Structure formats: structure tokens, C-alpha cells
Amino acid sequence: MRLSLLTAGGMLGGTALAVKYMHDEVGGMEALNRTVSFYSLAIPKYIQYRTHMFLDSPDETWDQLDKETSQQGLDKILSLRGFYIKSGQMVATNIGNGFPPIWQETFSVLQDGCPHKPFEVVRAIIESEYGKPLEQVFTSFEEIPIGAASIGQVHRATLHNGQEVVVKIMYPEVEDLFRGDVRTIKMFAQVAQPVHVPPLEEVEKQFMTEFDYVQEAKQMEQVRINLEKAGLAGKNKLAVVPKAYMDFCTKRVLVMEELKGEKLPDAIQRDVEQYAKKAGMAVDEFKLQEEMKVRELKKQGKDTIGPSAAEFDAYIKLETAKNKAQNISARLYNYTVGWIPGFQKKEYVSNKTLPLNYAKLIDDLIMIHGHEVLVDGYFNGDCHPGNILMMNSKKQLGLIDYGQVKKLSKEERLRMCRLILALADDDKKEIIDIMKESGFRSKAMNEDVIYKFAKVSYDEDNEDLTDGQHIQLFMESLQAKDPIDTIPENYIMVGRTSVMLRGFAHALRQSRSIAKAWAPIAQKVLDSEQ
């Protein structure tokens, strides 16, 4: 009996101490409640996935598990919001090609479709920041937001000088929530996925810079100036970056030029709908068919990359000609037979139905971000598709959201140029030497681990490199072989940019070697600056 009481007392005392530690570690009772809510789903699902890996369960079992878990994960994210939405956006981007299509599809709503807060909350934030009524700042302000994400929402408005703008509003509670959420995920990673702890620590630092919209506005202006100077952004260029109206920016309100376009995920979804319509299928049926095609090609050891930029161009020209012919026919009909009572007029075909050139889209994004990293040393580390617009002309990309801009020193930038060239040439010795020089450290400094880590982080993650393993298992195998101690913090965000671009490319069946794409830029920089 006494032993039972001692045991019970010890358990209760231990539990109390554990709760006290967790309370202090994640930042208060609300953060603790959020942590418990996260773990209530994460731990059982982690065990479930590990069990199926051990049992080598069939594809059908995995498909059903992914379908159930992705929806449960989305529900949990939408209930918790905060950093979990940002994490979900990474899943939607399919970073490192690490998630099955059902995850990407389920989480795609997080790119810009998060639940928004009522207008009364928005008004209160604006009037608190400006110290005056909203009407004294804006002549009009749309109450329904055009988008909502992890830390706030965006509204259309008009300034008193007649300038049409978009206004980003930051929720007042998000900074504290983010801090607790990142700590929670780091604690989980320390046990389940240690290889992700250093990147999470750097991501935490970068996310903390998102909570000052004046700083973000300055960063956006600098990127805009850099890209316009390089001829990559501006009128009739590859991209456009919105202008910030600095006089109206505060810590929690950012006012900027409105770009006329739609979110890239929405444009791609409409594209898929058009392809499905032409094939006479429902969208889900069409997606499943395409997924099965890719699986079959992989089984046969064949290339799964989609059409090239030139092939897309040829197809788009053909569709343009078809649309033109159809519209001429419709016009002739409508102005002749169409005037006769009882005859229905024919509809015209909009150029919005023209397909996107996925290959050029990916190549342009990779080139722009390569310039930011290697030439300017000043780059956006959060280039997920939700932060990209397809402009109405379909000839330009709109680049938005500059809360996570990273700056490299000249030494870091030139070293990254050398690393990119070594990766492009697959010069293993040079790759290892540069990684060591940059400050990368692992417990045993196993050269094979260093080489593979560099390839996956900054270049590519094909099945030849990962030995056919899922990317998560591959990274865990590297960690088991030689635990990674230190990753140069300024290069973590370069790696994040690389895998984010590649994840988007994978999703569009446009896989790329980032190093080979960036090599000409790197060589030009070294030739001119060394």
C-alpha cells in the first residue's frame, strides 16, 4: 500500500513537474494547451506511420491513411492557426517532393484560403495603429478580405489621393502564438526527426522578422529595386514586385500597390479544370489518371518530366489559333443567324482558358531567385506558390510577401556561387571542401553524408541520390549514419528556397537541378567579382 502511494505520489509529482516544464518551455497556459492539442494528433499518427513502414504495408493502405490523416491534419491546423498554418503551406508546396499528392491537394486551401477575422477586428487594428478613424486614412475599404494567411489578412482599399492599394493587417496575438508553436514543433522534432532541428531554429529566427510590417515593406522595396535594376522585374519583364507606400506602413499595417492577377495555385487549378474538361473527365478523375500515369512511368524506369517550354508554347499557339477561329465563327453566326428570333447566340472563348506554360513558369522562378541569392545576396526565403501571382496578361509573375528576406555577406554569396558550380559539375571533393569551409559540421564528418546533404539541400533529390527512399527516410538515414551538429545559418534559408522551388517544380512535373539552372549565374558572378 505504501509503495503504491509512493509510486502514485511520484507519478503525480513527476507529472506536475513535467507540466510545469512544458508550461515554461512553450510559453504559458494557452501555448501549453495548443501543444497538447498538437501532440494529441501528431504522436498517434507518427506511431501509426512508423508501424506501417515497419510492416511494409501495401499502397492501398498508405493511400487510405494519407487521405484520412491529411484531412485530420488540415482540421487541426485550421483550429490552431499560428505557425501551424505556415507549416501547412510548406506541405501544400510539397517541399522536397516529400508528400503524396493528396496532402498537397488537401492543404492547398492554406495557400490563401484560411478563415478570416471579422471586419470589426480589422478596423480596431487599423485605428489603433494610425491613432485615427479608418475613414481618415482610406476613402474606401472593402470589408471582405481578398486573402487570409498565417499572421493576418489582406483587404482592398483606396487612399485619399485616389490610389488603389491593398492593405495587410497583422493579428495582434500571432507573435506569441508563433513562438510557442515553433518551440512545440522543435520539441517534437528533437525526438522524432532530429535532422530538422537546425533548419527549424533558423526558420524560427526568420519568422520572428515577419512581425514588423515596416521592416517587410523596406525589404520588399529593396528586392523590387534589385530586380528592376537587373531587368528581371518591371513593365514587360518576367516579374513585378509591388511598390510599398512607406508613409502608410506601421508595425501591424502594410499598404502597397495592388497587382492585377490571381494566386498561382488558383490559376493552376483552373488550368487543370480545363484539361479535365477537354478529356471529358471530372477533375478528381483526371488528377487520379495523371497520378497513375506517373506511377506507371516510375515503375518502368521512364522519365516523368512533363512537356518542355517549347512544347508548351507550340500547344498554346495551337489553342490560340483554335480560339481565334472559334470566335470568328461565333461572331459571323451571331451577326447573321443569331439575330433571328429563336436562335441562340454562340458564346465567345476567353483567352483565360489558354493553358499555362509550366516549364517556363518554373524556369523563370528559378532564374529570378537564383539572381536574388547569387547576385544580390538578398532573397525571399518564403517563395511558396501562395506568394506568387499570375498576372492577368499571363506574361508576368507577381511576387509578393517579403517577411522572410535573408541577406548574405559577399563572402557567403561568393562561396555559395562556388558550391553551386561544384554541385552542377558533381565535383564531390570540391562540394565537401566548400561545405567544411562554410562551417558545416557533423559528428564524424563523414564525407558521403556531407556530399549527400549538400546535394539534397541545394541541388536535387532524385531517386538515384536517395537510393529510392522517401526523402524523410533518406534524411533520417543520413542523421543515423552521422548526426549533423551545425548547418551554417545563412545557408539554411538558401536550402529552404531551393527545396521550395523544387517542390513546386515536382508538383508540376517539371523537376529541375537547381545547381545546373543557377550555374551560369554563379559563373558570371565569380568572373566579375573575383
TrEMBL record:
<protein>
    <submittedName>
        <fullName>AarF domain-containing kinase</fullName>
    </submittedName>
</protein>
<feature type="signal peptide">
    <location>
        <begin position="1"/>
        <end position="18"/>
    </location>
</feature>
<keyword id="KW-0732">Signal</keyword>
<dbReference type="InterPro" id="IPR011009">
    <property type="entry name" value="Kinase-like_dom_sf"/>
</dbReference>
<keyword id="KW-0418">Kinase</keyword>
<keyword id="KW-0808">Transferase</keyword>
<dbReference type="InterPro" id="IPR051130">
    <property type="entry name" value="Mito_struct-func_regulator"/>
</dbReference>
<feature type="domain" description="ABC1 atypical kinase-like">
    <location>
        <begin position="110"/>
        <end position="275"/>
    </location>
</feature>
<feature type="domain" description="ABC1 atypical kinase-like">
    <location>
        <begin position="336"/>
        <end position="433"/>
    </location>
</feature>
<dbReference type="GO" id="GO:0016301">
    <property type="term" value="F:kinase activity"/>
</dbReference>
<dbReference type="InterPro" id="IPR004147">
    <property type="entry name" value="ABC1_dom"/>
</dbReference>
<dbReference type="Pfam" id="PF03109">
    <property type="entry name" value="ABC1"/>
</dbReference>
